[in-house]
Design a protein that fits this description.
By secondary structure, this protein is α+β, with helices and mostly antiparallel strands. The chain is 47% helix and 15% strand.
Length: 545
Amino acid sequence: MNHKKLIAKKLIAAAAAGTLILTLPMTGCNFLNQNESSESQNSNSGSASTSADKKDETVEKGIAMKSEHYQIPFNVFQYFYNYNYVSFTNTYGTSMLDPNKDLSEQYYSEEEKITWKDYFISSTKEYFSQIMLFAEAAQAAGLKLTDEDIKTLDDSYNQMVEVAKENNKTIDEYFKELYGDGITKEDIRNMQEMSTLGLKYRNQLNDGYKITDQEYEAEYNKNKTQYQVADYYTYTFNVSTSSDEESQNSASSDNAKKAIKEYADALANSTNAKEFNDYLTKYLKANPGLVHVETSGEESLTEEKFNSSVNDAVESCARLKAPYDDTTDTAKWIFDSSRKAGDTNILEIDTGYQVVLVEKPLYRDESSTRSVRHILIDASSVVSAGIAADAESVTDEQIKAQAVKIYNEWTSKDTTEDKFAELANKYSTDPGSNTNGGLYTNVTEGQMVPTFNDWLFDKGRKQGDSGIVKSDYGYHIMYYVGTGLKSWQISMDATLRQQKLNEDYESFKTKYNIEYDDELISKVQITQTDEESAAESSAANLANQ
């Protein structure tokens, strides 16, 4: 059977798709535990090694791949060959291959005579090739690991030492448990340094690419709908069923559906968003049981609270600037090229009727995104400052005071963006930005929480503006960087950068030579396929943080 078409671009192997997988070099991998008995190994896979005492030391000590500055020992190659196999079977199951039959006897593509063993060897070679080539390119560019990079690797090793101690093992015993025989801590460290340098250079290249307006336009014209949006409103009238109603006959259910069809027809008579919202507001107020009202404790339901909840419900029906979609019948209707403003549609579903009104058909969103730095101060910030013993005892006043203190620390000395970034790395508790100076680039309106969004998209906002805003997360010290890409350019920006990265990668293949010992590589085996062992080996992630 030819499985190539079935798993096409979703496969682990980057060779077929031609995409870069360097984003996960020796990081976040669930390393396979190879320290199992030969009986267990043999029962798990027809291609597993049959006896621990039959290991070929010449093979184990061999070099599977090498470039000018780097090499991949056979044991490391086999390790990731196993990892690719288990990752694949964990994701796709074993419907496409037989785990009890040698992989070299099963076809990934029978037409091309590519076996599953060929496939997993190819994917592993490509994986290491990418890491090695970017690391070689980094060497050629004079890029080196910083003291901070080295410290991060040292810390990961020290973490493993601590875990080993907690488990009453020596570090060598722990490494053997995680990686099996043959892979040393030097092998892992070499891989970490190579992959860290390669990824560092890859990111440097990616961030440095300058995409021209002409390139954006060319990509847009290739597939306009992919980068377009539409504004629409939708509401679903459902037939409500109680336990009593469930026992009634189908005729009653049909009558109930006919009744809500009248409401759906009335809403579908709307010709614009205002008419849609006005009717829906009236309908919900007449049917208060359909409105969810947030109350706390014994708080009474006031008319003001109810009306506010109705307004929230109506606002939630708006799908403004929704990206193109063709996965449902409703979406296909909304994003059809023939749609006009004010078009409505009623879609019958099992539970009732869905009404849709298009306010603005497919268009290119020309609004500018904005970039901002922020420092998030929350209860943990107060605890870290030694002001409170625990987060539960921290008051809102204390959090605000800490934010003001840090803000004043910046404004009283050096009010540059670089200094702000430095303080963000030091004080911010936002895990999404506290290692890059608190920076968020190309933020679209409505992407952030309301108070954050309102400050950022204030019409009078000027580059260099700063201030403090409160949200449910704490207090945000803000610094406005400026405008970014147009909204329509955001989703294609990553595509264009990936294209450039792929082009550079292809050029590296001609600049930096990698030698493969294919005779040695052909000796790889599936040495572990047990899910429990794969799960246990997740502790190996510590080696790659």
